[in-house]
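Reopening this one. Same input as before:
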Amino acid sequence: MSSNTSIEETTNGPTSIEASIEKAATTVGSVWPIHSFVTANPLSGFEDVPFEEAVRQAADLLGGRGYPRPETFRAALADGRIDREILRAELSERGHEIDPETALERMDTDIEDDTQDADSEGETPDDAVEHVDHVLSKWLSAFLDEGQAAWSMPGRENGFYAAFCEVAEHDGQIPQEGLVIDLPEEPIEAIEAVLEQYPESQWAPLFEEQLAALPGWTGLIKQRAEGGVWQSRYPITLAGYLAARLALLDAFDADVAPSTGQDGTQRDATDDLAAAFLAAWERSYRAELVDNVAAQSESITESNSSARPDAQLVFCIDTRSEVIRRHVEAVGEYETHGYAGFFGVPMEYRGYDAEVSVAGCPPIVDPAHRITEMPVEGPERTSYDRWSGIREAAGELVETLKTNPATAFGFVENAGGGYGLALTARTLFPQRLQELFDTAEDVVPDDHEFCDPLLDHQHTYAGDLPVGLTHDEKVEYAATAFELMGIETFGRLVAFVGHASETANNPHDSSLDCGACAGNPGGPNARVLAAICNDPAVRTALADRGIEIPEDTAFLAGEHNTTTDEIELFDDAIPESHAEDLAELRGDLATAREHAAAERVAPTDAGGAAVSETERRAADWAETRPEWGLAGNAGFVVGPRELTSDLDLDGRAFLHSYDWSTDPEGDALEAILTGPLIVTQWINAQYYFSTVDNAVYGSGSKITHNPVGNVGVYQGNGGDLMTGLPSQSLLASFDRPYHQPLRLSTVVHAPVERVTEVLADHDEVTELLDNDWLSLSVVDPSQGHRVFHYEEHLEWRPITEPEAHRPEMPEAPAAADD
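Same output, byte for byte:
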């Protein structure tokens, strides 16, 4: 098509424009608001191509590195984390007949040359584009605000494009020239006006570059446009955003023609060496993990699971659960299981006095129910309401005085001394102050003490979601949980333990909560499943399906505080007959907490000192690293607990319970490989890319963060939203990663034919495997515990010899967490 061809002469007109926008948007990953932080692969739009090609394309579009720096590989090699023989083999397979040190020197040289070339070219940012980004980010932050701003942007209810049109003529930073002077009523019309001089073949590349210019804001718009309360109130679309951006580019006389790419010959050579190092590092880790799992597989016998445990605790598959599970099992006859932290109930949850509901399921699952807390009249509710009302009224008064122009200065003058003392106390004595708050809060009951989740189907809807669950749905969720985990013998107490973090002054606090609950605490989901399993009608139906639960088995919920390792049990449904069991469990959990905290804080500390230190970190508003979160994650083991119960996996592996012998049709395995596996790969990818290039794929240092709109953070006072994890969550020091940036190594304990059948039915999983976004090994108990490694196109490579000699794997760096 000639560049003079008008829009009206194209085949589909606006429809073709919208299709081009949709195509271009796939290269920018979705971003969730920071108050509900969801870890996701920032290069999710490139997962349909091989990893090495994906990072090349992303480097051209987004400017980010795709591999760790040479010094990171050098340190891993020196620490013994990369097996030298495996590395030599990887280098040789790629045609590099050189030793590792020479390869590292070449990478150093290439990177230095690239830096010098860039400096010599003297490239400077386009001033016009910088002005556009500044103006656009200003109005995006005002429009997309989710409750932080005291004064809202006018016209938000009409949508972003309409609101932008209204304010553009009053913005002194926008030149009143070109398209922006008389913006069309519809955004597509504005886009058409800009596209007139470009052939249709350039539309998608043009949109792609413009969407990638501010990938943080673009990603948030993508996620917001999928729906929700804020989108229904203040709608925004990618078309509206692009129309505003193109109009601003026209006003500032900036070039919008898509670039022709860049010469990446030298970068490709460096990346090829880096890819070899990365693959060797992953193989070295995987060899140790697979060999240990295969050895444990041979030792599993029927007698391992026949005895009745004192209690069973079901934790999230989160890597932090691996640590606490080891210590719980060590203090008594306890059995632990791993299950996705939303406990299989895809719900939207609204607390007793919460203003909005929150998602209680992974982002790849749509909520299917609205669960609301229903209070029971009594002294606990009365006390809660009284204190809650006082706090709310006081908070509203203070906020009004601080933000109202008529009272702000007087308020600061009169209250400044009190604020100063409070700030001093929070800075110098954070733990003491927190203890005072905790003592005061002990007077006020928690909402779970007087509220029950409304489970029964109400035949009403909250938006599009039915309120409550039907009897059949309850039975299905309970049966699925037990079938997925392979539980056949039940103890007197069975606790579903969700998890949440506890931090102060931390915009990224939700990144430490449950990823399976969309960055929210997992306690509500645990309470729902426990209530379902205590329902007599559900138990009767489960018995008809072959799941026999003893009459003396009682289910309860709990929540694991991953910052302090305290496990709070919600015991409102436990009968008096189980009081001694419960008291013993509480005591043992307190002991397990001390041991787990000592392992995480410093192995030389006594349990009490370690617990005190974790509590200090949770309360200290100056603490940039209250906990490590999922840093270090590298493996995912799907199989019975006996495979890993004797192993110290150093908090680096996701653990999902699964018993292949109780899953003859492979339904449970299918659910795991199409659900939790995808979520863990997202988590792993975000940690990987946030580590290898924190400036592009992460969010930089917390020290210079500036929260904006309750949706994200800036570095400094404006610009693009930072989308990934902060450097303090990943780095032990400025130049030393704590998180080891490896792609996920998955190990499944099941017949290889069964795994193949599941993969054959799910292209979205095989695509990730074929394109090397993660690896998959199978320990087949039906074939003498042989190990098979997935190659591509549903083909497997039998591993008859270990991939490496099995040296003692070094522990992750701990000095920075002391």
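So the earlier flakiness isn't reproducible anymore. For the record, Residues 323-376+450-626 form one domain.
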